[in-house]
Amino acid sequence: MTTPPPQGQNPFAQQGQQPYGQPQGQAPYPPQPGFPQQPTAPYGVVPPAPPSRKVSFKLIKNVVIVLAVIGAGIAAFISSQDDANTAAVGDCMHRGSTDNNDPDLEVVECSSSKAQYVVLAKVKGDFSAISAETKCSEKAKDFQYSYTETGDGSNFLLCLKDYTK
Question: Does the reported pTM lie above 0.85?
Answer without folding.
Answer: no
